[in-house]
Amino acid sequence: MNNIDPIPFANKQLKRSIHTYLNNNKFRQRNVNNSSVISLNELDKKLGSILKAIPDIEDIFSESLTNIKKEFPKILEPSYIQENFGRCLTTLEKTAFNFYLRYQKRSFESLIELWVSENKGVIEKLSQKCPTPEKFAEEICNLFYPLIQRMEFRAGQKRKARGGGTFQMAVEYLLRKIEIPCEKPTGKYAKILKRIDLVVPDQKTAIERPDQAFFVSAKRTLRERWKQTIPERKPSWRVFLITIDEELSVEKADEINSLGMILYIQDKLKSKPSLKRKSWIRNLSALPKDIKN
Prior knowledge:
The protein is an alpha/beta fold. 60% of the residues lie in helices and 6% in strands.
């Protein structure tokens, strides 16, 4: 490998093979002479600056709307939303999430480029030492692993938080689009309403005349700790739990019923025999009519 320019080679080889090598369980964290060693705080500062390049969820959501208006304009038409709320919600959420993943991919590529630029000496030595391109890529990935592991942890936290925020934003947007007034609890109202994500028609009505309001909890998924993320229902509250999760066990469905909530799920999931006859489990497409009635 002595005739290989190590820096261009490293960039290309890393981008082609990093996912393959990092998924191999034999990789281990280790110290290598001349490799850069930085503290966890310094590492987080570097990763934080890279992750900041990912746009805010409001900007990504706006970009998604522009894309949908161009590619699938029907999805945003009020009359279509009214009859196909579930499809519109899943399309909007999926589009926004895909845009986010594109930006996240760019952030990982930026990390690779930054690491390569800061470790030219190590890369050059390895290019001289390693007998094959495959061995070279493996050694590079062994060095790079702790950094990419930390990056994935930070990105995963950010991705989870943004996924939930984008989903709630999509629900609010579609409801407003079909002239269903709603608000996200803020200030003193947020302290009272706690885990409620949206109220229909407004916060004041929700607090002063709760029997005339709807309380919406929008959760992208209902996983292991789902009960910790939903609101505690008060006797006069009509709580609608909304999700696009693709799975729902009978046990979980029955638990939701015991909590006095109505759950709205994807139409295809509702059609399953185990859920079809459960009146408190409803199609997402039925949500607008249920609120307006």
